[in-house]
Amino acid sequence: MMPIYLNRYMTDQLDTIDSCYRHLMGTPTETTIHELRVALRRLKPALKILIHLESHTKKQRQLINSVNTLDQLFKILSRPRDLQVQAELSDAFIHEQPQFETILGPYINELKHQIQILHQTLLQQVIQLNIPTTIRRLQDNGQHPVKEKQSAQLIQSQRQKYKAKLQQSLRALHSCPEQFHQTRIQLKKYRYALELYTATTGAHKQKRIQRLKDIQDALGTANDLHNAIQLMQFYQVDIQAITPIQQRYIDCRTQSIQELFKQF
Which residues have CB under 8 Å from 225's CB, separation 6+? Predict the structure, then answer.
């Protein structure tokens, strides 16, 4: 794999964000929202490096403001997506256990109603963020020369820092499996920092990145089940439907944690 410069990496992610944003403003789809969220995650570690490299306080503040704006965009996009995951999870559970359709049917209908409400306001909330201006500002910033040696050192340091934080979280996980979500967050940060490191150095880390993604997805499934339990309890769903999901959550959490320990 041929290495690319930090600016090129940023440009690639910004081009994806710009393209997805245009589609979002036209005909938003689940695929567009997913690709946009992934590109935002990939861009963030690069932006953090750029902030460290920027010596001018005003420009650094502009970069920080851009990061905050993109964080807001990510949160807005995540709200309906999170509820959609819960609705699909419950639909799948009913398909496996049809006897729970009477219990879960009203719950799913309420989730779909909330999703509809969120979608009605989503575009307006996104428009208010003025994302095109943020993209143009970052694209302009990406045209400026970057100190490649210093950026390479920062990228390496960032990767090591996130790996150390992940390992620290793993040590806590041994005694408290309930903290798996915090470990999942650290795993995400490490994975995207590793992607940046791999892209800018040409290091052969693709298999490891894919393995981390698989574990991240498994932890994500456990987290979805955990959220399902809390959401069902909030909507006072009958305990008969919650109990088997609780067991599935524990099994999924245990298995994904075991896989994670094998990697570290």
Answer: 89, 245, 248, 249, 252, 253
What would the DSSP string read from start to end of 82-118?
HHHHHHHHHHHHHHH-GGGHHHHHHHHHHHHHHHHHH
Contacts within 8 Å (CB) and 24+ apart, 166-173: 166/190, 166/264, 167/264, 170/260, 170/261, 170/264, 173/257, 173/260
Query: Which residue's entry shows tokens 């298999």?
Result: 207
Under 8 Å between Cβ of 149 and 2: no
The pLDDT, as a whole number, for residue 80 is 92
- Distance separating alpha carbons of residues 141 and 14, to the nearest angstrom: 11
Q: Burial, 43: exposed, middle or buried (Cβ in 10 Å; 0-12, 13-18, 19+)?
A: buried
What's phi and psi for 144, nearest 5 deg? Answer: -75, 145
Distance CA 107, CA 102 (A): 10
- The residues of the chain scoring below 70 in pLDDT are 1-4, 142-145
pLDDT of residue 262: 87
pLDDT at 4: 67
